[in-house]
Amino acid sequence: MKNRVAPLAVALLLSACGGGQPQQAAPQGPPQVGFVTVQPQAVTLTTELPGRTSAFETSDVRPQVNGLVLARLFQEGDFVRKGQPLYRIDPSPYQASVASARAALSRAQAAIASTRNLARRYGELVRINAISKQEYENATTGAQQAEADIAAQRAALNQAQIDLARTTITAPISGRIGRSVFTTGALVSAAQADPLTTISRIDPVFVDIQQSSADLLKLRQQIMGGGVSRGAGAARVRLKLEDGSTYPIEGTLKFTDVTVDPATGTQAIRAVFANPRGLLLPGMYVRAELVEGTQSAAILAPQRGVTRDPKGNATVMVIGADGKLTPRPIQTSRTIGDAWLVTGGLKAGDRIVVEGAQNLQPGTPVKGYQWTPQTAGQGPQGAAPAGAPQAQAK
Hints:
Elements: H1 2-16, E1 32-37, E2 41-61, E3 67-72, E4 79-80, E5 85-89, H2 92-127, H3 133-165, E6 168-170, E7 175-177, E8 187-188, E9 197-212, H4 213-225, E10 228-229, E11 236-240, E12 251-256, E13 266-273, E14 285-302, E15 306-308, E16 314-319, E17 325-336, E18 339-344, E19 351-355, E20 367-370, E21 384-385
Parallel strand pairs: 1-20
Antiparallel strand pairs: 1-19, 2-9, 2-14, 3-5, 3-8, 4-7, 5-6, 7-9, 9-13, 10-14, 11-12, 11-14, 12-13, 14-18, 15-16, 16-17, 17-18, 20-21
């Protein structure tokens, strides 16, 4: 009885499962991959280079006369204006020199009166032959020498007054003043090597940049060939500071040096930045982003779709006209945002695979969908089909 029940249970079980017929797996289509269609577009070419800030103007404050420093008339680190008194040197010796020069001038002016009168009288006497011509010429020469003495004494007085004025040392330019090297009571001289202090004008401020002459030559050739155009924005420069922040004010390109440094193969570029808050100080390390120009028909390849072989050559996987994956070697020059600027290997309309082809071999038939950054990692859900117009991809 037990032997009859077992076959019957097996038969009923097979009948419930579909009459005992094995189920077939549902057929699978080609793998789906996300792609980006290449289209020429206008891009702004920029380059980021290291640089150093330097003061717009710098002036060493030095004494022009000898003497003892009686007073310092400023606070270190303050902003000073041109002509503002900074130091006072003992004026006593120079006051005495002015008084002496003024007395010498008065003596010369007093002496010239008698020599002029003598020359005039001799002029009347020589006409009636009362004196010789030699005596008249001597009197005239004496009067001229007296006038020359007055001019010399007047110049000496002027020089003495200049030296006296220089006992008060004033700021030659406006700017931030540094520390004072000499203190009150120090003996200074006009021939000393060390300055008393230094004034720096840091609004605006210069940024000195070094760029490879080879890169500049390549850019000039592109401009001459018409591939890159330079507009009004080409003179703009942006700064990244040492802490990684971006300086809020854009600068302008001032000039590019006309010579190349033979030791480094670089050309000096100078930009100028407004610095109203004094955030930029001379000597700071910065990174400058220069706008080189605009390329009107650039081809960009997303970085996530570009791979490199052991030799560093760039390759992309494209969907061919037959719907199969095809590797394509390309040439790139630089990055622009999250894409490579392609200089060779791609043309308008090529479909670059950026998602879903990691484990697929070249020649594999695939089904593509338009990929966008918003749908990255989500697969084909909500993405445009392969035949959708490129305008739908952002």
